Amino acid sequence: MPAPGRTTTAEIVAAGRRIVASRGVEALTMQAVADQVGVRAPSLYKRVRSRDELLKLVVEAAIDELEARLRSAAGLIESDPRAAIADLARELRAFAHDDPSGFRMIFGSVPAEARPDIAVLARSAAPLIEATTRLVGADEALDAARTVTAWANGFLAMELTGGFQLGGDVDRAFEWGLARVIAAVSAEQKPAG
Question: Where exactly are the structural domains of the chain?
Answer without folding.
Answer: 1-48, 60-186
